[in-house]
Amino acid sequence: MVLLNKVKPYKNIGPGAHIQELMEIRDWTQQDLADVLGVSTKHINKLLNNEQPITLNMAKLLGEAFELSPQFWINLDTNYRLRLEEETEEEKDVDVRSKIYQYMPINEICRLKWFDKPKTTDELVETVCDFWSMESLDFKVMEQVPELNYRESEAYDKFNAFSANCWYQMAKNSAENFDVPAYNKSKLKQLAEKLHTYTRKENGVAEALEELNKTGVKFFVLSHLQKTYIDGASFIHNKSPVIVYTARYKRNDNFWFTLAHEIAHVLNHLKKEGDYFLDDFSKTKEEINDTEREANTLAAEYLRHNEILDFFDSLAYITQEQVEECAETFDVHTAIIMGALAHHKQISYKYLHLFTEDVRKQIPMDFYVEPKTNEK
Q1: What is the value of pTM for the model shown?
Q2: Which of 92, 192, 244, 360 is the most buried (most CB within 10 A)?
Q3: Domains along the chain with CATH numbers
Q4: Residues 51-69 pLDDT 10s
Q5: How does pLDDT run across 261-309, given as a tens digit for each residue?
Q6: Phi and psi dihedrals of 54, rounded to 5?
Q7: 215/184 Cα distance (integer angstroms)
Q8: How far, in Å, CA of 295 to CA of 312, rounded?
Q9: What are residue 138's phi and psi, to 5 degrees?
């Protein structure tokens, strides 16, 4: 009735997996089950991880909660603990590797050269521990799911929270390799106010990033992982604000909005070590919270969206000449103008390609975690 039909013969499945599946059927959390059984959530966590043997009393309680006999739970736990003694080294290796691959997209990570693919299980464990800064393998660290501002829609049903957690960990690891002076908030405010002027310069991307570093903010490009939908991120790490761009969309208008949005987070929302924002900019206004809405508003101000919209407000048609005139008037790149108009549904996104550029070619290689990204 439960997990047995899904399990390969070599895998020693403990009672915790059966309890977890029965909880999912009832849509129960660990707290829910703890309340039902009258025990602590710590006790429930140990049961789910097979760290706590099932006593006769617990078997009775589980029997009542899930309408199964106490004997079922006693037999399940006894057989599991007997099989523990019989597992071969090969089976134990498979068990460890299967758990690691559950929490980490190892092949994609190795393709991105975040680390070389380990040849043995011992090498894999050592590499994973180094990646997560663990002294020994602890799956609880890998189970933690970051708060991601992603869309709640059918299109995002395949979102992988564990991969998002890996990406965030890699971002924190990568931040160690970039040096900047002490953070100066007033300098960052000044940069934000003139950010639009860099969008039109021939080397504006490189100059803006150089000035960003001078304010004490670390910036780098780190590819997103599949099923994470991350466009950009900002966080505090070792007292320095960090901004990360994934280049999920390579358009320069996307780059400038991501940069402006994350600068807004740094200036207004990041308060202490460990604070972070992982952002997906394909959400609608109704799908974001007040903090994200404020960051969007500030980013639009930095890029002069209001002036752009006012410029085209009374025009029946939008021509290339008018776009170029607007760019000259407000000292902003034509791609920013088209992006603003498309976002506010005044034009179709299909016209963006006429004005946008591949920003990856404009970002200096020093800002890349994966060197080949800039060559795609």
Answers
A1: 0.76
A2: 244
A3: 3-84 (1.10.260.40), 100-142 (no CATH), 149-375 (no CATH)
A4: 989 999 999 999 999 999 9
A5: 999 999 999 999 989 999 988 766 667 789 999 999 999 999 999 999 9
A6: -85, 115
A7: 5
A8: 24
A9: -135, 105
